[in-house]
Structures are given as structure tokens and as C-alpha cells.
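Notebook B, p. 112. Complex prediction, attempt 2.
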Amino acid sequence: MADISKLGMVFPSYSIQVQKNKIAEFAAAVGQKDNIDDIREIYRDEEAAKNNGYEQIPIPPTFAISFVFWTGGGLSAILETLGVDICKLLHSEEEYDYLGDICAGDVITRNMKVADMYERGRKGRAGWSFFVTVLETEVTNQRGEMVLKARTTFIER
Amino acid sequence: MPVQYDDIQVGDLMPAYTSLPITRTHLVRYACASGDFNPIHYDETFAHGIGLNSVIAHGMFIMGIAGEAITAWIGRKQIRKIRVKFLEMTQPVDLHNYENTKDRATITITGKVVSKYEEHGEKRIRCDIVARDKSGSRKLSGFFIAALP
């Protein structure tokens, strides 16, 4: 069970450069394409990205999850820090606020904190309970602009 | 031609988007792309060990499919917010039993515009979305907000 003393904890900041190849790989994964040439044009073609108002190839809407998984030791480091049992882990909610563009070549920094932790359940004979953890992540770019906020809720069943 | 604010009415439906039947290969590709290597998504022995019949799709993979559905309709640059709750788990298709398992692994995203309003100097819509498999099980529900020209 997650360690409730971690409520309010701020994780170290981590930075990562957004890679064109990772964008294409992600777009292929969520688009279920075997061939990179078949993904949506804005995710593989700089001209198409520019025609859509971007300076460079943009990230797909849910790509930002990778900023958390590809830095700072990823999922296992987060779970270990919080004392969460991976065998009981379920992702229950995800939310993104898009405040600015994130494109290939940008160097983003993610700042994540434990925004909430609580137990939900019903006492008694047919009782059930699970433990809820909410992580909030702010993503800034190399110019210091906040470009994305994420809110991730997971439970231990 | 991008979708125009004036052409959208509350109650309008987002064009439905249907995934291919999700295979274990799709889950491996998504794991590598996202960096989410929770073994519940690709290691059958782990899944069995925690009492599941098979590996299950990442909730974020289903949300990623929803992202594809949204941006097939509204330009990527117009999206301001997406929020979802994950509901039922999704088992991938079993290749040795394809006909009987493909429906549980085929996800359709639907959506409906629920409001139009101005905010931060932009004309915005809020559209509720749902993901269901072919047998009707709900995988996620939520909404997105987009700013339209």
C-alpha cells in the first residue's frame, strides 16, 4: 500500500529532449500502423507540421505520458518511491491541459508531485477499499514556458 | 477544411473511430513507445500470477486511440484539454481463437458535443467521449475541449 507520508512529496526535476523518432514510434503505436509512412502526416513530415501551424513535428495528445516513463527511472522508480505494489496497481484517471506546443527538438522538464492520497471504500462485512494516489506533473520547455499539465490518478485494488 | 465553431451545434456527434482488433503485438509496441513496461500488459505469467486470465491493454493505449479519434476530426493544435476515467479492462485478441475474441479487442470511440462557449478569448467546444468494445463494454469515458476557428 502506498506510503501516505509521501503526500505532498515533490519528485526531482528531470529533462529530456523530444525526439522525432519517438514521436513517430508513438504515433505508429496508437494508430496501430506497422509502417511509419502510414502514420498521420503531421507526426512524420515537417512541412505538414508547419502547414498545421507548428514550428516542428508536434507530439500526439497523449505522448506526454512518456516524459514520466522515460526519465527518472520510470514506472518502477515511482512505485518504489511511493511504496506502491505493482501487483495491485490500476490506472484510473488521466487528464492533460495543453498550454503550448511541444515539438521535436524541444527540451522539456517535468516537475511531478504527489497531489493527493486517500483511501476509498466501504466498511463492514461486504467491505471493500482501495488506495488512491494522484500525481500532478507540470511540463516546461527550454524557454521556461509551461506547455502542459498532467494529472494522473491510480489506485491499488 | 478545419471544423468551424459556427458549424458545430450542441448535440452534434464526433465521427466514430474504430480501432483494429488489439493484439499483444500492439501492446508491446505501445509499451516501447510510451515507456510503460508494467508486465501486466505483455507478460502472461505476470497476469496469471495476479489473477487475470490474460494480459490487458494499457488504459493509456485506449486513451491514445481516443486521441487518434479526436485528432481525426479536430486539428491537433486545437485541442486544449482531454480528461478520461478508465473503466473496464481490455483483453487483446487471442490469435488462436480470433473469431471469438476479436470483438472484446476492437475499440470504438464515439463522442457528442455538449457545450459551446467562449473562454480565454477563444471559441471552445466541450465534447464528451466514450470508448466501447464491440460487445458494448465501456473502456473509458471523459471529454475533450477544443478551440475552434
